[in-house]
Design a protein that fits this description.
By secondary structure, this protein is mostly helical. The protein has one domain: ABC transporter involved in vitamin B12 uptake, BtuC (Orthogonal Bundle), CATH 1.10.3470. 78% of the residues lie in helices and 1% in strands. It is built from 14 helices and 2 strands. A two-stranded antiparallel ribbon has the order 1-2. Helix 1 runs parallel beside helix 5 and helix 6 crosses helix 8. The longest helix is centred in the middle third of the chain and has 27 residues.
């Protein structure tokens, strides 16, 4: 039973993390190759506050605020760059974070932080809370996507210059996307730290950023249901098939290549095309 609880918790954390990137990249078209750094900010904040005597539930909003604040700072420095240049900038942020925590004894250095205090919720309670946060994140994503903000995000992703001509404050909405997305990444990082009871610099490096990007691309960029399914699936595959865990970067990189080459809209696009091309489905709809 403990194995199943741990697996479900891992899936919930992965879904939160993937949805946080989907808000930035999927909704607003802002490519981020260093997103794991913001999960790391939340994880380190929760771990250090926990060791200082703060309760787990108290650390959650604080970790989100800190990750969101740093996300806004990164967003401010990235307002003048787009596309490939933005990807390189965010990738640099990821390397900077890993290098910084690795060199600071205050953050545990190379050894990281282990032996976090008990969160007091029990395995089942922790899993249920993670699932609740996962559901709330999904609901928020759907709400944003259907709102005026979501339509502006979509417009920025399609043609940023046109949105400026229409009088839309593009920088403001870009910062909003970074703030919301990185805050949720910080939330997932808090759960990650307490779930594994250990965090280190390598837990939030470039490989993890590529992993979460693979989840978003595989599910379908901008598709909330697709990203949820992809994140849950890719999160548990290494546990089910040990060989995938050994070659994680190779497998996820291959998925990225295949999806971008043959189905840029991911599983969501494949599903839509299947139902449209299936005669039986068309007959039922008629």
């Amino acid at each position: 039973m403990n194995y199943e609880i741990s697996l479900i918790t891992t899936m919930a954390i992965a879904v939160m993390f993937a949805l946080s990137l989907n808000l930035i990249t999927g909704f607003c078209g802002q490519i981020s190759l260093g997103h794991a750094a913001f999960q790391g900010v939340g994880a380190y904040a929760a771990a250090m506050l926990g060791q200082a005597g703060w309760s787990f539930l108290t650390t959650l909003p604080l970790a989100m605020l800190l990750a969101g604040f740093l996300g806004v700072i990164v967003g401010l420095t990235s307002l003048r760059v787009r596309a490939d240049f933005l990807a390189i900038t965010t990738m640099g942020v990821g390397f900077l974070f890993v290098g910084f925590v690795r060199q600071q004894d205050f953050f545990g250095g190379e050894l990281g932080i282990s032996s976090l205090p008990d969160h007091g919720l029990g395995r089942l309670g922790f899993m249920l809370l993670a699932l609740l946060m996962c559901v709330l994140t999904a609901a928020l994503s759907i709400y944003i996507q259907r709102s005026w903000m979501g339509r502006v995000f979509s417009g920025i992703a399609e043609d940023e210059d046109t949105m400026r001509v229409l009088g839309i404050d593009v920088p403001r909405y870009k910062l909003a996307a970074f703030a919301i997305g990185t805050s949720i990444a910080g939330l997932s990082g808090s759960f990650y730290a307490y779930h594994l009871n250990f965090i280190g610099p390598d837990s939030f490096g470039f490989v993890e950023s590529i992993t979460v990007l693979s989840m978003v691309v595989f599910g379908g960029i901008g598709s909330v249901p697709g990203v949820i399914i992809a994140a849950a699936l890719l999160a548990v595959l290494p546990a089910w098939f040990q060989v995938i865990g050994d070659y994680k970067l190779l497998v996820y990189g291959g998925l990225l290549f295949l999806m971008m080459r043959f189905s840029p809209d991911g599983m969501a696009g494949l599903t839509k095309r299947f139902f449209k091309s299936n005669p039986m489905v068309r007959g039922k709809q008629a």
